[in-house]
């Protein structure tokens, strides 16, 4: 059984293979520093080479280290990540084994599940992997399977990709034009139009529609895009009239083709579901890492390119809002990149954004991992940005030739030493054997044998099985249209921020037509306390009439729902009654000089009964903010008015109430700002907790990696000293007793010493040294029996030093995990100079006078005030 060291940043991938014999080097673990993946990786290998296995190994290790991932899964293999069973019991495997495999094995389902469980238990044990490690991986992230264009898994909506950029157009022109170009290319490809930017008029027209809308901050929908294709919001394209360059009749044909997309019933599954939002795909609202798998096996080639292009453009936009880092922050893995990144002159819509990611993502800690079994379909010049190449068994000599050409490009780009003898080694590769070429590792390339995957690799999962796996998440899933419209009045503690998505106000209902005026003489006795003539108020007192939002019929339905009674007999006298209340609205600007951010919020109140003392508990009367344009200074029709409470007819009292409101807002209004005291990081006003957690985790990860390097370097020096001592002892062994074995042992130590003198400052170098020491200890035990007591003591000291290093690295990991989790909330209060009264005066609130079941009832006619009551 192989032993390995758990350490921050280090991915445990397998063991070394002797390139001369092809045999695995027992006890010699292969580690890969996660930071090296920030310069991206390419995995190539034919079917049966073990390509899927090593890629899943990478993803499993990333999850254990808290690194989120977005996975594009064209075949359904990577969904196997969800099949991880820490208990390794047959009952866990049984629902997922292939029935055909059981039949071929001539076993019952129970027997085959038991054999698979035993196979996985034995295989993992040989690699030193326990159920605890599987549980760490399984619980390290939320695993979600999205099925765009289908409701089998979690549905995903493409509408988010058409929205205007949140950060605006100015200053982001180049980035947004690239995004528009990719989106339009993919959209046209979806209707079978192979249009090139700058050259084809279809592309030019749609790109200008996008740019015109986004410049003005307007969101696009597919419907508006189709309508504007027929009637563009501009008269010219360049120096030509739109009609000259693209006649209306031909524009109609393009609009018709676009309309066919949304007219198809199956297209509804493309616009319902969670938004295609990269931050949400990578992290839960609580900041927990996610592995979001986009299962696209059911899509056509055009649909695949469409959704992948939107995803890649989304990743670019998300990435550019990040701070730089030297650590791996997130991973984008494409399981089969065939057709997405072909060589010149082919240029599918996926190629340009993928090339930009390969060139730019390193600075932001975003790693790109691409896999393919078709080496001839890759643009190797573009892939010269990839620093890690993992090469498995290839099908043809031409494939091998293409790979060697690709490695030469990498070699030139990275100024590496010449690669030697790879041609011969590639020809002899066996399943699960790979050449690992990492430009950051001066001792490579290495021939490795991949470790056993913790996930059950059962092959592609069907959409029916995905539905089963996602049942719990689907139960809590809210469709996109619900997310976009289901909003409530904001809490008083936060107020209303017009520009802050987290505090969007409840939408103002469209006012109903003015009610029929009552007759000059009431047809029934007025309710007590109401008069036909409004009270006379001082000219200094402002008056506002709250708009009528509910019809009488709607108000009756609301009464039924609230009272739980049926309105059997209703007499709708259509008499509008007004009750006076204190209506107030305050604009507040919050400023944070430390982050140079600000946010405006609005606080609105309707106080139905003002006490004589003039003391109001304002928090009890909060309502959603009013649109001042919807408030009228006069009633829209004749109405009846309630008696005015004494406190509202007293100018001095109203002035005191306004002062009291200003003081209450100053003392109670606040916005939440997130804060990490140990890292001294402060979030922006209005920023989400998830975004702040992601930022904190990135900074903490980078500092953790740096401290882990220092710890590993310190122990590496100790191990080097012990190696020197061991070499001296071996040289003094009795040549007559074990001359041959002593020479072999001496070769191991002296050769290792020469090679590893080059390696300093990276934690996985030290781990590789300890891995070599395990092999050395085993050799000494077998060949010499530790007859030299002093040598045995040194070897024991090596083991102790290794154990100390592992413990120290665990302490580093825990320390920074605790620091990253220390997220606190600060309440930021406003300056008095930033508090302004927008509305303050008598608010006349409308009601309907109705007889319900023979009893007079006064029903609210304003939904906004109704919610407050």
Please give a handful of descriptors for the protein shown:
869 residues, single chain, alpha/beta, eight-stranded mixed β-sheet, 26 strands, Rossmann fold, 26 helices
Q: What this model shows, in words?
A:
Strand 14 and strand 15 (446-450) form a beta hairpin. This protein is 40% helix and 18% strand. It has 3 domains: 156-473, Rossmann fold; 501-670 and 829-868, no CATH class; 690-821, no CATH class. The termini are far apart. The chain contains 26 helices and 26 strands. The model is unreliable at 412-418, 479-494, 496-523, 735-740, 742-761 and 777-787 (pLDDT under 50). The strands form 5 sheets. An 11-stranded mixed sheet has the order 2-1-15-14-13-3-12-11-4-10-5. Strands 16, 17, 18, 19, 20, 21, 25 and 26 form an 8-stranded mixed sheet that branches. Helix 6 crosses helix 7 and helix 22 packs antiparallel against helix 25 (789-821). It is an alpha/beta fold.
Overall residue-averaged pLDDT value:
82
Largest sheet: 11 strands, mixed
The CATH architecture of the largest domain can be named as 3-Layer(aba) Sandwich
Return the CATH topology of the largest domain: Rossmann fold
For the termini, the CA-CA separation is 70 Å
What is the radius of gyration? 35 Å
Strand order within the widest sheet? 2-1-15-14-13-3-12-11-4-10-5
With helices defined by DSSP (H or I, 4 residues minimum), what is the helix count? 26
State the low-pLDDT regions, or none. 412-418, 479-494, 496-523, 735-740, 742-761, 777-787
Q: Approximately how much helix is present in the residues?
A: 40-55%
Task: Tell me how many strands there are.
Answer: 26
Instruction: Indicate the structural class.
Output: alpha/beta
Task: Work out the count of structural domains.
Answer: 3
CATH class placement of the largest domain: Alpha Beta
**Principal-axis shape:** globular
């Amino acid at each position: 059984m192989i032993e390995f060291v758990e350490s921050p940043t280090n991915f445990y991938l397998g063991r070394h293979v002797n390139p001369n014999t092809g045999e695995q080097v027992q006890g010699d673990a292969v580690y890969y520093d996660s930071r090296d993946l920030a310069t991206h990786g390419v995995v190539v290998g034919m079917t049966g080479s073990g390509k899927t296995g090593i890629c899943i190994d990478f993803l499993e290790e990333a999850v254990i280290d808290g690194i989120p991932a977005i996975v594009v899964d064209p075949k359904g293999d990577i969904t196997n990540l969800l099949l991880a069973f820490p208990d390794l019991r047959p009952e866990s495997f049984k629902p997922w084994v292939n029935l055909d495999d059981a039949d071929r094995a001539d076993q019952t389902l129970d027997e085959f599940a038991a054999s698979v469980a035993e196979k996985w238990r034995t295989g993992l044990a040989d690699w030193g992997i326990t159920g605890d490690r599987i549980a760490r991986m399984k619980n390290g992230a939320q695993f979600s399977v999205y099925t765009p264009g289908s409701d089998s898994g979690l549905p995903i909506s493409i509408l988010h990709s058409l929205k205007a950029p949140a950060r605006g157009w100015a200053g982001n022109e180049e980035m947004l034009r690239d995004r528009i170009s990719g989106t339009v290319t993919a959209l046209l490809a979806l209707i079978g139009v192979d249009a090139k930017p700058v050259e084809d008029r279809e592309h030019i027209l749609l790109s200008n529609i996008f740019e015109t809308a986004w410049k003005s901050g307007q969101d696009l929908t597919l419907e508006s895009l189709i309508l504007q294709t027929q009637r563009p919001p501009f008269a010219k394209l360049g120096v030509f009239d739109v009609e000259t360059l693209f006649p209306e009749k031909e524009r109609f044909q393009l609009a018709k083709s676009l309309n066919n997309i949304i007219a198809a019933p199956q297209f509804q599954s493309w616009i319902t579901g969670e938004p295609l939002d990269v931050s949400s795909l990578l992290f839960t609202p609580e900041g927990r890492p996610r592995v979001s798998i986009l299962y696209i096996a059911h899509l056509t080639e055009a649909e695949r390119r469409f959704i992948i292009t939107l995803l890649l453009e989304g990743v670019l936009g998300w990435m550019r809002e990040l701070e730089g880092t030297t650590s791996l922050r997130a991973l984008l893995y494409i399981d089969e990149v065939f057709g997405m990144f072909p060589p010149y002159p082919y240029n599918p819509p996926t190629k340009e954004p993928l090339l930009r990611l390969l060139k730019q993502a390193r600075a932001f800690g975003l790693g790109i991992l691409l896999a393919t079994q078709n080496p001839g379909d890759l643009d190797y010049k573009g892939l010269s940005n990839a620093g890690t190449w993992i090469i498995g068994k290839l099908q043809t000599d031409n494939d091998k030739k293409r790979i060697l050409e690709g490695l030469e490009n990498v070699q030139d780009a990275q100024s590496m030493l010449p690669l030697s003898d790879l041609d011969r080694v590639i020809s002899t590769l066996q399943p699960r054997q790979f050449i690992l070429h990492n430009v950051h590792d001066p001792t490579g390339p290495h021939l490795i044998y991949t470790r056993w995957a913790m996930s059950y690799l059962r092959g592609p999962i069907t959409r029916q099985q995905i539905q089963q796996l996602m049942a719990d998440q689907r139960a809590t899933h809210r469709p996109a249209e619900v997310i976009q419209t289901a909003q409530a009045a904001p809490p008083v503690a936060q107020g209303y921020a017009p520009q802050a998505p987290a505090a969007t106000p409840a939408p103002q209902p469209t006012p109903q037509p003015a009610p029929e005026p009552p007759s000059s003489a009431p047809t029934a006795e007025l309710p007590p306390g109401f008069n036909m003539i409004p009270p006379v108020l001082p000219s200094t007192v402002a008056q506002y009439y709250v708009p009528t939002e509910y019809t009488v019929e709607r108000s009756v339905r609301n009464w039924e729902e609230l009272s739980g009674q049926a309105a059997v007999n209703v007499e709708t006298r259509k008499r509008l009654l007004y009750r006076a209340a204190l209506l107030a609205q305050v604009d507040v600007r919050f400023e944070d000089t430390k982050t140079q951010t600000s946010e405006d919020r609005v606080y609105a109140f309707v106080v139905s009964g003002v006490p004589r003392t003039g003391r109001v508990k304002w928090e009890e009367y909060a309502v959603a903010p009013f649109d001042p344009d919807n408030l009228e200074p006069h009633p829209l029709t004749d109405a009846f008015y309630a008696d005015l409470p004494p406190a509202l007819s007293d100018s001095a009292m109203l002035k005191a109430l306004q002062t009291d409101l200003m003081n209450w807002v100053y003392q109670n209004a606040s916005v939440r700002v997130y804060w990490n005291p140990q890292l001294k990081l402060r979030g922006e006003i209005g920023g989400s907790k998830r975004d702040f957690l992601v930022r904190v985790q990135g900074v903490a990860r980078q500092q953790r990696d740096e401290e882990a390097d220092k710890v590993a370097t310190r122990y590496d020096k100790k191990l080097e000293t012990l190696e020197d001592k061991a070499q001296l002892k071996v040289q003094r062994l009795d040549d007559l007793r074990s001359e041959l074995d002593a020479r072999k042992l001496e070769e191991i130590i002296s050769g290792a010493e020469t090679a590893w003198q080059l390696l300093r400052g990276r934690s996985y170098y030290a781990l590789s040294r300890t891995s070599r020491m395990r092999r050395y200890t085993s050799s000494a035990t077998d060949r010499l029996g530790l007859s030299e007591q002093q040598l045995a003591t040194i070897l024991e000291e090596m083991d102790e030093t290794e154990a100390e290093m592992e413990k120290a690295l665990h302490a580093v990991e825990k320390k920074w995990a605790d620091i990253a989790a220390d997220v606190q909330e600060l309440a930021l209060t406003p300056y008095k100079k930033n508090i302004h009264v927008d509305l303050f005066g008598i608010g006349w609130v409308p009601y309907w006078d109705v007889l319900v079941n023979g009893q007079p009832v006064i029903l609210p006619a304003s939904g906004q005030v109704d919610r407050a009551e």
